[in-house]
Amino acid sequence: MENFYKFVGENYKTPKTPDDIKLAGKVYVTYVIETNGEISNIKVLRDIGYGTGEEAIRVLQLSPKWNPGTINGEAVRTLYSLPISIQSKT
To answer: Where do the domains of the chain lie, and which CATH numbers do they carry?
Structure first.
């Protein structure tokens, strides 16, 4: 997970906003990790506007394959939730 959070942090680009708007908050997304490790069904549950949710989707679509969840040694589809913290540079 640490490597995944690093991946998101390195690839997420805070959307441009007017100079008087400083973005701060969290974007909440859910997605399914398929049995082959690919991510699908990405949904933004909540964002802070200005394209922050769309950027989260873009980054997740770039994600390398995951190790799928397993039950009794068999790969299964797994729903995952991810909060992404956003803080504009001052």
So the answer is: 2-87 (3.30.1150)
